[in-house]
């Protein structure tokens, strides 16, 4: 069964009538693709109720970013959810009819996570993560779900949300699922549809470069792979299309050091005005 | 009955074992005076359990403020609580043994409330209210109290906390109690003890000036009282000892306007290195 709410008050009333803890939350900005659907499927398999929120959150877009252009496809999204095997479980879609439904006019609170948000996407999108943590907190508080599902494509976002959940003692388990990729290797994203045919080919440079670094780190110690990796990073640094490409400690996004066990190789590449991100986790050996 | 916890984990375990909603929270920085005790008494009268937290929160002190000097008197505080009529109710004192108990080393989250924090104390203490909202959120999350008690002396703080509670959907009722004053009229504060005998007399200028403005506003319309009030404010503005003295809309701390029904007259005055604050609420008539 699927129910759709456009009113936060009506949603809240319904949510509070549910006398169960078996509730999963999948927060999305809509325009659902197979990546989102894999999160929803996982939640259906693990919970009696799955709450899917569909809300393009203005707080996480910068002034010159693509908030207005971001694809809004609610009818198609609901159809995609309906096509899933629901098998006696229940799906609740919360698609607020306006920004004021989620952030009332006199809303004045911001939640920020420091350090983790200074690097990668945080470096080039200054208020982005404050917007993310503030909306996700609000969705957590509305949904009161015991489990919450996020895609690993937004790796930094997952770390930031985990930090917030721990710091603010929010009673939900954050579950991150692997990146869902097209056959070409391109990470699925609602923004991929902005790419031309040739753009889709050019975009493979993102996953390709990340994988190349990952292979080097699997073959050699971090120090031995360093020279070749630096060559790759230097080329990227001179290339205006790349916003960043970094190899960081996967736990805290700090520089790799003797205690690092796993790195995240994360990049952002702009193709035809569309900014794409991708990442890959790799265990490393750090020669002493 | 009184129980004392220095460990947040042990407190949490005990709190989670309580199967009741009849819980009041009184967050304090210790060095309890009659103002604090009036909050605790009110909570005892309204709840089966009263949680009193005693924690000098470093986040709300600026680099040149009196964090180190702030009086810490735990033994005397517990004695004062013990001397109250508890009558079958239960008091739980949470006095964390270290800052890390409340803010673990990897804690990275800040909660901020905008607009309301730009004026009065917020103007001269830039990160003060972020420190307040962050600690108070954390205490709310640990205590899970249905009611929380604050003193009206920190009027701006109460407004900021109310805003946070609403924005973050925190399930506690914020109750603010009137300022507790010494016989002289001086608002009770843990900082009063830093004053010399002559300082205590000089300090009466704070409550006295605020009351003078309040009386003018009771006698005349806001516009008619305006000239005399401006004369008072001008004198204060030239006096280095005054940090601020303002007459603002009591609901939103904005400039008084045609919709204002009540004002807060709030001041901060430095006497012998000790910064004192005070305020008074007054209903106004606004001639049209």
TrEMBL record, chains A, B:
Source organism of this protein record: Halobacteriovorax marinus
Main function: Catalyzes the condensation of pantoate with beta-alanine in an ATP-dependent reaction via a pantoyl-adenylate intermediate.
Other facts noted in the record for this chain: The reaction proceeds by a bi uni uni bi ping pong mechanism.
UniProt pathway annotation: Cofactor biosynthesis; (R)-pantothenate biosynthesis; (R)-pantothenate from (R)-pantoate and beta-alanine: step 1/1
Keywords: ATP-binding, Cytoplasm, Ligase, Nucleotide-binding, Pantothenate biosynthesis
Subunit field text: Homodimer.
Any one biological process term the GO annotation gives: pantothenate biosynthetic process
Residues the record lists as binding (R)-pantoate: 60, 157
Family, per entry: Belongs to the pantothenate synthetase family.
Pfam family, one: Pantoate_ligase
Full protein name: Pantothenate synthetase
SUPFAM superfamilies on file: Nucleotidylyl transferase (SSF52374)
The keyword Cytoplasm belongs to this UniProt entry's keyword annotation: yes
Catalytic activity annotation: (R)-pantoate + beta-alanine + ATP = (R)-pantothenate + AMP + diphosphate + H(+)
Xref: PANTHER family: CYTIDYLATE KINASE/PANTOATE-BETA-ALANINE LIGASE (PTHR21299), PANTOATE--BETA-ALANINE LIGASE (PTHR21299:SF1)
UniProt-listed Enzyme Commission number(s): 6.3.2.1
Residues annotated as catalytic: 36
Compartments reported by the entry: Cytoplasm
Record-level GO cellular component terms: cytoplasm
Binding-site residues, ATP: 29-36, 151-154, 188-191
Primary localization class, coarse: cytoplasm
């Amino acid at each position: 069964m699927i129910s759709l709410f456009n009113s936060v008050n009506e949603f809240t009333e319904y949510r509070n009538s549910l006398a169960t803890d078996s509730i999963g939350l999948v927060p999305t900005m809509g325009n659902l693709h197979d990546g989102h659907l894999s999160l929803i499927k996982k939640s259906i398999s693990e919970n009696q109720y799955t709450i899917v929120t569909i809300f393009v959150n203005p707080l996480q877009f910068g002034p010159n970013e693509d908030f207005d252009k971001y694809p809004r496809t609610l009818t198609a999204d609901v159809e995609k959810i309906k096509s899933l095997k629901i098998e006696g479980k229940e799906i609740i879609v919360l698609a607020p009819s306006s920004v004021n439904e989620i952030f009332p006019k006199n809303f004045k609170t911001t939640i920020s996570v420091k350090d983790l948000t200074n690097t990668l996407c945080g470096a080039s999108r200054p208020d982005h993560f404050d917007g993310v943590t503030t909306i996700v907190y609000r969705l957590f508080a509305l949904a009161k779900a015991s489990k919450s599902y996020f895609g690993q494509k937004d790796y930094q976002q997952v770390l930031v949300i985990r930090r917030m959940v721990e710091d603010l003692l929010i009673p939900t388990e954050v579950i991150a699922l692997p990146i869902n990729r097209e056959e070409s290797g391109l990470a699925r994203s609602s923004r991929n549809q902005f790419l031309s045919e040739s753009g889709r080919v050019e975009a493979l440079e993102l996953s390709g470069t990340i994988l190349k670094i990952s292979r080097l780190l699997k073959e050699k110690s971090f120090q031995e792979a360093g020279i070749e990796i630096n060559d790759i990073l230097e080329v990227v640094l001179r290339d205006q299309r790349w916003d960043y490409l970094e190899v960081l400690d996967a736990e805290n996004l700090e520089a790799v050091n003797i205690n690092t066990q796993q790195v995240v190789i994360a990049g952002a590449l702009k193709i035809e005005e569309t900014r794409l991100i991708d990442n890959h986790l790799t265990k490393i050996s750090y020669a002493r």
